[in-house]
TrEMBL record:
Signal peptide as annotated in the record: none
Listed name of the protein: Lipid II isoglutaminyl synthase (glutamine-hydrolyzing) subunit MurT
GO molecular function, one term: metal ion binding
Species per Swiss-Prot/TrEMBL record: Cryobacterium shii
Residue ranges of domain Lipid II isoglutaminyl synthase (glutamine-hydrolyzing) subunit MurT C-terminal in the record: 303-384
Biological pathway: Cell wall biogenesis; peptidoglycan biosynthesis
Amino acid sequence: MLYAPAILLGRVVRILARWRKPGGGSAVPGLVVNRVAPGFLPRTLNSFPGGLIIVTGSSGKSTTTKMLVAALRAHGTDVFTNQSTANISQGLTSALLERVNLNGRIAADMAVLEMDEGHGALISGSLAPRVVALTNVMVDQIDRFHDSDMVAAMLAKIAARATGTVVVNADDGYLADLAAGLGAGVSVARYGVSAEVLAANPRGLGYSATAHDRLPAESGMLLTHIDGRNATIAIAGQDYPVGLPSRGTHYAVDALTALATARAALGDRFDPRVAAEAISTIPPVFGRGEIVTVRGQQVEFVLVQNPASFQLNVDSLEPGTEQILIAIGSDVRDPSYFWPVNTSVLGRVLIASGSKAPDIALQLAYDDVIVERVEPDLGQALDDFLALPKPAAGLKTIIFSADSMRRTRAHLGLASNKEGQE
């Protein structure tokens, strides 16, 4: 009962925060509880009988986590997860408050948590995860993480706390080096992408190595084929089809990460067919290839958070998509961050919007993309875009950064995902 007063206080704060800001304020209760009871978060996370699984890295955390949870639950495992994608300390604590009892316990077999690299490194010293899954190291959030070496160091700090297995993308040079430096008491599970898949992505996947010639056939896990929303993954030499929540090789790699992590978590209980079928049923994660109906029209939302995800998402758009709005917001503090992205495949964008509208319009123009209108007022841009007749080809498509995503959803009256960033 040590944390009962803090839990009760957090729940009161949650009620007040939601009363004051419906659909928002999700991080506030966690912020309060972490301040008055700093031991609550690590004690609760370390209390699950089947252990804690952490998913972290530059990109793919949210989708990988959702896929992994689906695979584990399909095996009959009761899983607690931060399903709102709240991945920083206060957001994690707020997620725990939703289900924890006054004894500070949650009735579940294991916890699967998406964790921000920076916040994960800060609290890693008090955690004892059984499995840590590392997705990749990419140029990301340069206002916070100044270079990739800094991100790799944070991930190494988290991985060093693993008591069982560290799951790594063997195509990522940073992660390959990280895995080589882990202690003898930790096992390493590797997965990778075939040479054929790499060749089909001429702009690359942001990787600095190739794993296809290093993974043993009898135990390796390899992405061997991708076609739109359908992928094939070889597990111990046998192929398994996997349906993806959205187009793109990066979603197939997320599925690969989830399968490798599920195998590490379940051990002999792991059934690759059960896991692959479970992953094939999940819908897109919030904003990541999500298709919503707004004002009687279907609209596809495409979230871009770093140059690699921007490039992969642009390259994966449905060919012939004729109505595109791009909105880049205040979260992209330095517009040159996105300049490595080749946007020429877009051909024509109807509206460039958001607080960085002139900057993204300039980048598009340098890539010979026709930009018909620059409208910094995102609300006005959305209203005018949705008022256009239904496109003859493809869906209306909105490409946005995280800040513009939140503003778009608020303007359109769509549910917030409560990412713990308020």
